[in-house]
Amino acid sequence: MNSPGQPQTTGPAPAAGPRGAAFLLAQIGAHAAGRFAERIGHLGLTPADVGLLRMIAGQPGRSQRALAEDLGVVPSRVVRLIDGLEGNGLVERRRSAEDRRNHELHLTAEGKRTLGAVSRAAAAHEDALLAALDPEQRTRLLGLLERVAAEQELTPGVHPGYRARG
To answer: Which of the two residues, 15 and 51, has the higher pLDDT score?
Structure first.
C-alpha cells in the first residue's frame, strides 16, 4: 500500500527490454537470416548452401580439406555438405592433378546460373533490409560492421553457423 503523497502503483514495474548494439545486431541478424532463407527457398537452397557456392566460386579448384579449414569444421562435415550440392548438379568434384587423393571443387554451369540467381536475390534482400538508410549511411554502416568483425577476429566471408551445425 502506498503512503499519502506517494505516486499510486498498480504492481511491479515492467521489465526493461533488451537494449544496446549487441542485442540489435542479434535481432537484425536473425531477421535478415530468416528473410534471406525465404528469398532463396524457391531455388532449393539453404543459406549454408549459398555460402559454400560463394566460397567455391571465389576460389575454384580449392580442395575439400582447404574448404573445411576455412570453415573451421572437420573435413567429413564438408564432404556431407558438398554431397548435397553435387547431388543437385551445382558442384562437381575433380581429382587433383597434383595429388590424386584430393578432390578439387568447381561450380557446374547450373551452379553458376544458380549463383547468379542468388546474387540477384541477395541484392534485393539487402535493398529491402536497408531501405531506411540512404547510400552514404549504408556505406558507413558497412564500414563500421567490417571494423567490428575484424576486431572480433571473424573470418571474412565465413558465417560462424557452419561450426555450430556440427
So the answer is: 51
